[in-house]
Amino acid sequence: MGADLPCDLSIIVVNYNTAHLLDEMFTAVAAAIGGLSVQKIVVDNASRDGSAALLSERYPEVELIANSENVGFGRANNQALALARGRYLLLLNTDAFVAAGGIERTVRFLDANPEVSVLGVRLVGRDGTLQPSCRYFPTPWNEFLVRTGLERVFRGAKLVDDMRWDHTSVRECDWVPGCYCLLRKSVVDRIGLFDPRYFLYYEEVDHCRAEKAIGGKVVYYPDATVVHIGGESAKSDAALTASGRQIPALQIESALLYYRKHHGRGGLALGVFLAAAGDALLLVKSLLRGRGTGGGFRRFATTWSLLRRTAWAKRPTR
Fold this sequence. Notes:
This protein is an alpha/beta fold. The chain is 41% helix and 19% strand. Helix 5 (140-148) packs across helix 9 and helix 9 (246-288) runs antiparallel to helix 10 (296-309). The chain is built from ten helices and nine strands.
């Protein structure tokens, strides 16, 4: 296919130190695209494991954007838009392996359902365990319930990860995970892709809100399955691991930015209050069980530090 010709699908992959997964991911893609014409774009976020060299050597058809620094997930995906020629965009993680024929089926579903803007699929772990695949928008209240375990009391609440159904039918939802996210390029050209303020986390939540705001539908599609490992990029870098405490900080920062953007100062204040209340409740539980202070105080301190550094969630830290 000529370098400037349109195609059915542009597959966009952001890679960070996951060279060991690329062969498996691309092998799965080859078996999943069927008769589609496909463009493959990989944005490498300054990997140190030889990913860029491997891609150049083994996958010369891939259009590679090699960053000199890690710019984050959302910004890296945004970079690929300048190259994308497909009618549809598939955002695919390197640790997400699509079952045979799955990509073609999802594209044909969008062809047959023009009212659908965003499509997600059935996600499972290596052992076949179902993962959250069809989600509600996060709110200060539902996140508080899940963190504290109080969702067992408030059973009517719409939890972010509602697993109380069989996941075997097409279902409209609020947002789908970005590890496999199929989008109409015509819509993305109109509203953009990801808000660059989110370095990691909440970027796909935010984007699905934008799609729904202009009348688009976000849909879960059960007839394509993706084996999703999760957390591979984070494990590759001590600075991004939970033990290094940066991943929780990135999650908290993105949540603060999201609440300020979509719920205003009042929603942000409520989120901070409920997060502090949740920290306090978990601290008391941990002390009563003889487990020390746990991580509640650390999370509380991180939240207040980020509020100061982001000027109450008006700007990102990186």
